[in-house]
Model the fold of this input.
Amino acid sequence: MSGLLDVIGGILLIGGTAFLAFGGLGLLRMPDTYTRIQAGTKATTLGTLLTLLGIAFLQPAWALKLLLIMLFLMFTNPLSSQVLARAAHRAGIAPAPQTRADKLAEDEEGAA
Amino acid sequence: MSRSMPPLKLFATLVVFWILLNGSVAPGTLAVGLVVAGAIVLLFPVSLSVVSGHRLTPEALVASLAYVGYFLKELVKANVRMAALVLNPRLPIDPAIVKVRTRLTDPVARLLLANSITLTPGTLTVEISEGWLYVHWVVAPTTDPEAATRAIVAGFERYLEVMYA
Done:
């Protein structure tokens, strides 16, 4: 019985690690701040969630605490990304040249 | 209606979280939790919480569950797409910062919407101003506000509208 839980936990851990690795690769490959934040936020959220879920299967006694950590993560991770992106935009960091439109910059010019 | 949480409700929420995190109700642990929760309630009387403006009708609770399910599905989809994008040797991105509108007025509902957008397919909320959200899109099929609103916001708004007044 515990053997099955261990296998599931292991698979989840491997999956989580893979997504974290993709996130790291995304950070290297993406062309600008905004796309990098995107790669970083998404891959790390699912990667960390899967990792924590895997640990919950390996250590069922910790499940409740891990669930709370997952909740905190789902709230704080996107928030910090948004604040970073907003700070970058306010600081005037331009998106990569292939970016098709920047409605925020357009509207700010209109208001100024 | 006041946007801040009634102090007693905030206090109770904090104590419950503390007990869950500790997994024990030993007198010492409980005492620390009560003191800290009390201090937080006194020091931060104006605070928002996920449950601040949440309706307690059966429809709202059903919508909350449906929202969580939809959100998890979108989260997995977003990650798989992002992984596929990063692993593609040509890196086929087509980014744009688009403008979308939301009908939501409750601050917590807007926070949840912005967070959900950030965690789901290729989108990242950059700025929020009145009813407009500025969203960075890694692969933007459109830059038209109306079409973008339908693609990015509508899915979540459907549930959030029922959950929050």
User: Anything to note?
Assistant: The interface with chain B takes residues 18-19, 22, 25-26, 29-32, 34-35, 37-39, 41-43, 45-47, 49, 64-65, 68, 74-75, 77-79, 81-82, 85-86, 89, 95-96, 98-105, 107 of chain A (CB under 8 Å). The mean pLDDT of chain A is 82.
